[in-house]
Predict the 3D structure of the following.
Amino acid sequence: MRSLSLRPRVAMAIYAHPDDADVAAGGVMAHWASQGCAVHLVVICDGSKGAHGSQTKPEGLREVRRAELQLAADLLGVAQVHSLEVPDGDVTNSEELRSTLVGLMRHVRPEVVLGPDPTATFFGGVYVNHRDHRETGWALLDAAAPAAAMPLYYPERGEAHQVSWLLLSGTLEPDVAVDVASTIDVKVKAVLAHHSQTGDDAEGISDVVRGRASQAGRPLGLSFAEAFRSVELAG
Ligand SMILES: [Zn+2]
C-alpha cells in the first residue's frame, strides 16, 4: 500500500446506485472538488429497488433517491451529475452502456476515473457484491481501456480520449490510499443525505464511515483514507 496524491483538473466517478460513490469515494471526490477539480458523477441506476420492505413503491423511491443524490452531490461539490436511470438490477455491460460511457469520457475528458472493481465478488464470507456493481465495473474498464482512447471505437461518440488513471473501490486488492482527513466530515454528511438507505441512526452510520476510513488509513499512518486498486494507463 502506498499513498497517492493526485491533483486532477477533471475527474469522473462512475457508480451503479445513487449512494455508491459517496460511500466508496466521497472523501476523495470532495477533496479534489475543493482544489478546483471538475468532478463529474455518473450514476447508472435509478435506485428504484433499494429497499428491503415490500411496502415501498419503486416510482416513489426513484423520486426520493433522485433528490438525495443531488443533495449529496452538492455537499461534495460535484460539478455535474449524469443519471442514466437504468432500473436497479438491470445493469449489463452492454454495447449500449459502453457506448454511453465512452461518449461521456470523451465529452468530459477526465484524467482520473473512479468506480467499482468488478473482480470483487465475495467479501469476508458475509457479502456478495451486487451484480450492478460488477457490471458497472466491467463496463467502465472496457470503456476506458481501450475504447475511449481509440478513435475507431464508437467514432460517432466524439474525439478519442486517454484516461490516465483508474481508481477502483470495493476491491479485494487495494494498493493505494488517498488521505481524506480534510473531507471525512463532508463524506459522512453526503452518505447521510441518502436517508432512504441509511435510516435514522446517523451516529451509527457516522461511526461506520469513520471506522472504515480510519482502517484504510492505518497502514500508512493516516487518520482517514480511502483505498483503491490503481491502474496507471499508458498514454
Ligand atoms: Zn450499490
Remarks:
- The two ends are 24 Å apart (CA to CA).
- The chain has one domain: 2-232.
- Strands lie at 2-3, 10-15, 38-45, 80-86, 112-116, 122-123, 127-128, 165-169, 176-179, 225-232.
- The chain has a mean pLDDT of 96.
